[in-house]
């Protein structure tokens, strides 16, 4: 099974630039075209939050217009820039999304089980899942402790070392870690939020974050570094699952590059 992951497109209303500088709508269209042009068609597309920038209905209308170009099924979770009720309304045709409450869900009709988590407290930019949500996750994981499982949440549950991102990190992570560690079949935890690729061993599994389709947050590790981003390099993640070999993840850069050349 080949799984494509896109994240943080920050879609705007038609004709409006993200942060006044980036054509996030065009970039998301290019990301979708990139995924569809791969030499192997993905079986599933995951989008790990911040689908829009301000949570406005007209932004979600644009997301659905752009996603009409997708020829493969997709699963979505919200990010801190999303608005839960507007998100739910925009994706009301997606049967896995709950009709009320936090947008936690489980899809179990693929070779890999996918669990989406809503890590976005209303009106906040940091990440957190309340006790009720953690209890739901524990029950869902306990239903099958052998089937390979991928978790999705917007906020990565670790400190990145980038000061202006860690201000808005997942808070009170130990409770979530305890639930995940109890499930031996979690192959991978997929996140967005940080607009970069990061990997960390955590809770007996691996956390992988996805680049944004729009901008990259700069890697600055000085504790006093001011927030800074730039356009590019953009990319997506490809996660290849094989029953015999497990899961392997690749970064796939979006754009034109020199080559190909006839050597490895």
- Low-pLDDT stretches are none
Kindly report the spatial arrangement of strands forming the biggest sheet.
4-5-6-7-9-8
Tell me the structural class.
Answer: alpha/beta
The number of domains: 1
How much is the average pLDDT? Answer: 96
Helical fraction: 10-25%
Distance between the termini: 25 Å
> What is the string of SSEs from the N terminus onward?
EHEHEHEEHEHHEEEEEEE
Shape: globular
* Total number of beta strands: 13
Rg, Å, rounded: 18 Å
The CATH topology, please? Purple Acid Phosphatase, chain A, domain 2
Number of helices: 6
Label the CATH architecture.
4-Layer Sandwich
CATH superfamily: Metallo-dependent phosphatases
Q: Largest sheet, described in full?
A: 6 strands, mixed
Strand portion: 15-25%
CATH class: Alpha Beta
What this model shows, in words?
The model has no long low-confidence stretch (mean pLDDT 96). Strand 5, helix 4 and strand 6 form a beta-alpha-beta unit. This protein has one domain (2-253): 4-Layer Sandwich (Purple Acid Phosphatase, chain A, domain 2). The strands form 3 sheets. The protein has a 6-stranded mixed β-sheet. It has 264 residues and is α/β, with parallel strands linked by helices. The chain has 6 helices and 13 strands. Helix content is 21%, strand content 23%.
In short:
This protein has 264 residues and is an alpha/beta fold. It contains 6 helices and 13 strands. α4 links the parallel β5 and β6 (149-152).
């Amino acid at each position: 099974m080949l799984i494509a992951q896109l994240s943080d497109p920050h879609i705007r209303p038609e004709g409006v630039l993200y942060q006044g500088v980036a054509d996030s709508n065009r970039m998301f269209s290019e990301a979708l075209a990139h995924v569809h042009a791969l030499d192997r068609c993905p079986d599933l597309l995951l989008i790990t939050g911040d689908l829009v920038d301000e949570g406005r209905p007209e932004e979600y209308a644009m997301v659905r217009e752009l996603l009409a170009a997708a020829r493969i099924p997709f699963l979505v979770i919200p990010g801190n820039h999303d608005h839960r009720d507007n998100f739910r309304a925009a994706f009301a045709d997606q049967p896995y999304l709950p009709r009320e409450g936090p947008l936690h869900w489980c899809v179990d009709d693929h070779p890999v089980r996918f669990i989406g988590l809503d890590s976005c407290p209303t009106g906040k930019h940091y990440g957190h899942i309340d006790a009720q949500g953690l209890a739901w996750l524990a029950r869902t994981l306990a239903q099958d402790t052998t089937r390979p499982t991928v978790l999705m949440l917007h906020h990565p549950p670790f400190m990145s070392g980038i000061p202006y991102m860690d201000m808005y990190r997942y808070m009170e992570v130990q409770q979530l870690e305890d639930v995940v560690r109890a499930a031996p079949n979690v192959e991978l935890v997929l996140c967005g939020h940080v607009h970069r690729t990061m990997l960390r061993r955590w809770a007996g599994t691996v956390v992988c974050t996805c680049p944004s389709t729009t901008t990259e947050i700069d890697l600055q590790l000085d504790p006093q570094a001011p927030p800074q981003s730039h356009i590019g390099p953009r990319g997506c993640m490809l996660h290849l699952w094989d029953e015999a070999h497990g899961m392997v993840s690749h970064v796939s850069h979006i754009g034109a590059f020199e080559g190909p050349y006839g050597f490895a």
